[in-house]
Specification:
182 residues; Aminopeptidase; four-stranded antiparallel beta sheet; 19% helix
Length: 182
């Protein structure tokens, strides 16, 4: 699930963007990012903020910082611009993008004022570079009309199924030598 953006004039200026690892103390930030990750079709009203506490959504954030959790936050000029995170959701806690119990699901969100400027590409690329040493693949769920689908396809995610009206996509993560670490 997620909202991200396209290319940016800021993309070539790394001094304006800092990417850092998420910690258990970032759980409050992730609740906001989870809300921002909800795709709202153009012309539709946003859902109520408490929607993130429904069990089918809260599993993406509640108790953040478990052993398999991995995530990064983007800070633009020192202010939070977005976050991307991975969680293995298994059994009764399986998420919308579940493909198997070994593949973590991706969530990503940018605050609205940071979308469409390339920050999503940089944020997601950083997370995926770190994930290569831990996971063979990453999955996600995305609405077919969500503009972020272009980013996912550009990074190599492929459609592997449907869950209701959403697409399930997977990216294989072959291990890379000398991958960038945050």
């Amino acid at each position: 699930m997620g909202q991200a953006g396209a290319r940016s004039p800021d993309e070539g200026n790394p001094g304006r963007l800092t990417i850092r690892l998420l910690t258990p103390a970032d759980e409050p930030l992730l609740w906001e990012m989870l809300y921002q990750a909800i795709h709202v079709p153009e012309g539709s009203p946003p859902p109520p903020r408490d929607i993130v506490h429904r069990p089918e959504l809260s599993r993406y954030v509640q108790g953040w910082g478990q052993q398999d959790d991995l995530g990064v936050a983007a800070l633009h000029e020192g202010e939070v611009a977005g976050a991307a995170w991975l969680r293995r959701l298994t059994g009764a806690l399986r998420g919308y993008g579940h493909v198997d119990d070994e593949t973590p699901e991706l969530s990503i969100a940018l605050l609205p004022q940071h979308r469409g400027r390339g920050l999503g590409t940089r944020l997601l690329s950083s997370l995926l570079d770190m994930a290569r040493s831990r996971y063979p693949a990453v999955s996600l769920s995305v609405a077919p009309d969500n503009p972020a689908i272009r980013l996912y396809r550009r990074l190599g995610f492929v459609d592997v199924g449907r869950n209701g009206t959403s697409l399930t996509m997977v990216l294989a993560l072959p291990a890379q030598r000398g991958s960038n670490q945050v």
